[in-house]
Write a structure and sequence with these properties.
The protein is of the alpha+beta class and 242 residues long. It is built from eight helices and ten strands. The protein has two domains: 4-73, no CATH class; 92-237, no CATH class. Strands 6-7-8-9-10 form a five-stranded antiparallel sheet, sandwiched between helices. The longest helix is centred in the N-terminal third of the chain and has 16 residues, at 68-83. The protein starts with 6 loop residues before the first strand and ends in a 5-residue tail after the last helix.
């Protein structure tokens, strides 16, 4: 068993440092990039990263390793934060989005609940523009889940992948024929406006107009201790949920 600090990344491979001077031979990991060494040092401190379970033989060759997928997902989160600015977003592949979804759904009951709903539409990854505690801009990972009811309406459920109970679930609703247009407008709004959540919560005339243009329906708050409170509220708004 080892920590994320024991990993050394090369392009297409990793090594694990058993101690300060002894490392394993290269272990092939095609997605690995040398730049991850600096990225993890910058962004992994003070974050909960699960231990990596590794088996090494007497010749310092890695026989088996478990836990790399969690590391990769955390690195994608770090890339989005490091390279995402007010003007640009980090490039994330479809494969990386799928891995994030599976990883987060295994830990986050709300994401898991939304991900298992039947839908003819793909989940949309959103890089939310936010300000941190120091007033600097960064991007957080979130998703829009398009879920259809029995009356040709699409509910677009925006849920954060960050583990913050303070980030409410926001729901938009439109006719299926307008889905693509409304999706694009919502995505553009979230990714270009650092006051997204405060504006969705606002009752100011200008913000009410923006919400109407986005087909905004309502918000559902997370309970700090009881997940079921959130799910029950979601079912009140969307009774057709499975």
């Amino acid at each position: 068993m080892c920590k994320w600090r024991n990993l050394y990344y090369k392009n297409g491979a990793i090594q694990i440092f058993i101690d300060k001077t002894t490392a394993t031979e290269d272990y092939k990991w095609e997605v690995a990039q040398e730049e991850w060494n600096l990225l993890t040092q910058e962004y992994f401190n003070n974050r909960q990263i699960e231990d990596i379970i590794v088996e090494v033989d007497n010749n310092n060759r890695i026989k088996s390793i478990n836990g790399l997928e969690d590391v990769e997902v955390k690195i994608v989160f770090a890339k989005i934060r490091k390279y995402g600015t007010a003007e640009t977003k980090a490039e994330v592949t479809n494969n990386e989005v799928i891995k994030i979804m599976h990883n987060v759904a295994a830990r986050n009951q709300c994401i898991n609940f939304l991900a298992r709903q039947k839908s003819d539409y793909n989940v949309i990854d959103i890089h939310e523009l936010v300000t941190d505690q120091y007033g600097s801009l960064r991007r957080d990972v979130s998703f829009i889940f398009p879920i259809k009811d029995n009356f040709d309406n699409i509910y677009l459920v925006w849920e954060s992948a960050e583990f913050e109970k303070s980030k409410a679930t926001h729901i938009f609703k439109c006719k299926e024929s307008m889905n693509e247009e409304v999706e694009n407008n919502i995505k553009e709004f979230i990714e270009s406006n650092y006051r997204t959540r405060s504006r969705l919560n606002s009752s100011e005339i200008e913000d009410r107009k923006i919400k109407a243009d986005l087909h905004y329906l309502c918000r559902v708050d997370h309970d700090n201790t009881d997940y079921q409170v959130w799910e029950d509220k979601m079912r009140e708004v969307m009774p057709f949920l499975e």
